[in-house]
Amino acid sequence: MEPVSLVIHQVRKAMSDITQEAVIIGGDFQGLGIARNLSGLGVRVLVVDPVFCISKFSRHVDRVHRSPAYGNPEKFTDFLIGLSVQEKLQKPVIFPTSDIAVRILAKSRTRLEEHYLVPTPAWEITRLAYNKKLTYQLAAEIGVPIPRTFFPESEEKLSEQVLDFPVILKPAITANFYPVTHLKAIKANDHHELLRNYRYMSSIIDKTEIMVQEIIGGGPKNLYSFCSLFSNGTVKAKIMGVRLRQHPMDFGSSSTYVITCNVPQLEELSAQILRKMNYYGLSEVEFMLDERDNTYKLIDINPRTWAWHTLGAKAGVNFSALLFRDMHNDSVQLDSFETGVTWIREVSDVPTALMEMVKQRLNVIDYLRTLRGKKELAVFSRRDPLPFVAELFWAPYMLCKRGFRM
């Protein structure tokens, strides 16, 4: 097995001769991370986003284009095709950073492949991760553990379920619910709350998309992820991480502090379901450790780069660069990564940690310990400081728009 540093050097050397382009859909910190991970490798980077984004201030982004809203997939696809012609692009690799962008690429893959190298699989594959109802059905079929989950399609069916409260209600398709509510799950402590929250969710999404799921205790310290580049039934590169902080802490919509770890069982379970899907590309497979039976239970599959993907590069696995190479039939396989490396989302981790201190679930000394060692910051970079400055000015607006839930 070649050392990680040697393989990364080979990737950099190979990519230095390439004059290809990359297009990133979404210019927030996640898209910014992709641009930075491709920087210095001979790749011209363009970002498209329907709203203001901090990537426009990055020295690693060649140009930012204002796109139509994602809500009109046909119009957005036309925009991408027009952009390719306008910029005279030579089949760039296109990187989605959100679920809705994944859906557009998967469903418009045939049209887009004339102009782009599209890593997102066809819809018949991608939908198995996009819709958690299908994800859980597939997992149950092949024996991958999942939390006890129900899909009541009416209030009558809901009343028939025998439940151990508290439970959570979740959308099977996050992209249909989260943009409206900025919630990924709603807790119900009794049947009255369950019915009230069910009615609330059904006013936003179809009843067939509502899941009722048991709560697996332990909080974010038991929330693990297996992240990989997967191709031809094989894990080509990987890291694993555990979230110690997220916002909100109980049912987080975003990670704020992640540390790399190594749990071989996560790879076994993830490879099993990705292989069954015939999946290709980058993904994050999330598990919750159930301390009652010491079992890792599948929670979600993100068929794209995930929020903290730049932790990979800091730990020796540059996922953006590796996917770019693989799309150009020049792949490199990495079998190892560095554990104990951390990722911090600066703008949300500080208030999250402060609230944990207020609730006496975290003390100052333990918090300061988490800031030590090798780390990757989501936005701040000495070599590329302006996006962080822009985010500091933009943060109050986003706080007012979305709120900061405790």
Query: How many separate helices?
Result: 16
Gross geometry? globular
Query: Total domains, how many?
Result: 3
Low-confidence stretches: none
CATH topology tier name of the largest domain: D-amino Acid Aminotransferase, Chain A, domain 1
> Which CATH top level class of the largest domain fits?
Alpha Beta
Range of strand content: 15-25%
Topology:
Blueprint: H1 4-15, E1 21-25, H2 29-38, E2 44-49, E3 63-66, H3 73-86, E4 93-96, H4 99-107, H5 109-112, H6 123-130, H7 132-142, E5 149-150, H8 155-160, E6 167-171, H9 174-181, E7 186-188, H10 191-202, E8 210-214, E9 223-231, E10 234-247, E11 254-261, H11 264-277, E12 281-290, E13 295-302, H12 310-314, H13 319-327, E14 342-344, H14 346-358, H15 364-370, E15 375-377, H16 386-402
Parallel strand pairs: 1-2, 1-4, 2-3, 14-15
Antiparallel strand pairs: 5-8, 6-7, 6-8, 9-10, 9-12, 10-11, 11-14, 12-13
Helix pairs in contact: 4-6, 6-7
Describe this protein's structure.
By secondary structure, the chain is α/β, with parallel strands linked by helices. The chain folds into 3 domains: 4-121, Rossmann fold; 148-214, Dna Ligase, domain 1; 219-381, D-amino Acid Aminotransferase, Chain A, domain 1, CATH 3.30.470.20. The chain is built from 16 helices and 15 strands. The protein has a 7-stranded mixed β-sheet. Strands 3-2-1-4 form a 4-stranded parallel β-sheet. A 4-stranded antiparallel β-sheet has the order 5-8-6-7. Helix 4 (99-107) runs antiparallel to helix 6 (123-130) and helix 6 (123-130) crosses helix 7. It is globular. The termini are far apart.
